[in-house]
Amino acid sequence: MVFVHGTVCDYRAWSAQAAALSPSFRTIAYSRRYARPNERHGDLMDSTVQNNSADLEALIKGLGLDRVHLVGHSYGGFIAAYFASQHPDLLRSLVLVNAAVATMLASGTSAAASLGLLLRSPSVALSARRLINATSATIKAADGGDRSAGEKIYVQQGIQGGRTGLPAKQQGFSEMVAENVGTVKETTNPFPQLSVREVTNIRTPTLVVWGELSAPWDSRISEVLAKSIPGCESTKITGAGHFCLVEKPGEVSDCVKKFLLSHS
């Protein structure tokens, strides 16, 4: 099993799942390009879905792995879905946890695409705009040295859609987000073409997981993915949002394990 984390996180985001699943699988959680403890010097504009997918391919082949069970969360879920569309020969199964595949909502970032989304689903469009605004505010704050912006602006206002009173997260969550706040900038890079048409070509056994309290933009992406990928299974985690993997780690681990054992 190979775990791919999202923005403002690193390999530690998967600690609970790696521990719970390691008796049944060889679990590998790695930190992507700019995530801790990696030390790279750049402006995050060379961290894209495409080259993170290429990094993942190099990791799998470099470790001499056979086909893997791939699990991705948030932006890491986008990377995992794109990887599945490009390298099905390297996968046994695919699990997408609150996968932030933004191209499921609109085919582009043009004003026409945004207007189309607003007309089709105002609540989804407005929550997506809230995330975009929070992303810009987080980048500005982080550039000014505010390490707390990752959680208090990006996670709470953008990702969680303003939801407060979150259940206790895994130990070290706030510290991990603070240490990786700068990686928010990678989400402003252009996305690859991965629309409903492309994901319908994914033939890898797939499970889509998301928290029932996820923001409208977040839930809609998972719903579209679950409906569009042939034979896809889906699970909604009660009482959790975008970070269901740390809010309800046991439930996420259990549903992933059940799915993987049926495709192992």
Largest sheet: 6 strands, parallel
**Helix-strand string:** EHEHEHEHHHHHEHEHH
Q: Tally the helices: what do you get?
A: 11
Task: Extract low-pLDDT stretches.
Answer: 109-115
The structural class is alpha/beta
Q: Residue-averaged pLDDT, rounded?
A: 91
**In the CATH hierarchy, what is the architecture at level 2?**
3-Layer(aba) Sandwich
Distance between the termini: 10 Å
Tell me the strand order in the biggest sheet.
2-1-3-4-5-6
CATH domain class name:
Alpha Beta
How would you describe the oligomerization state of the chains in this entry? single chain
**Residue share in helix:** 40-55%
Query: Overall 3D geometry?
Result: globular
Structure write-up:
This protein is of the alpha/beta class and 264 residues long. The protein has a single domain, classed as Rossmann fold, CATH 3.40.50. The protein has eleven helices and six strands. It has a six-stranded parallel sheet with strand order 2-1-3-4-5-6, sandwiched between helices. α9 (216-228) links the parallel β5 and β6 (233-237).
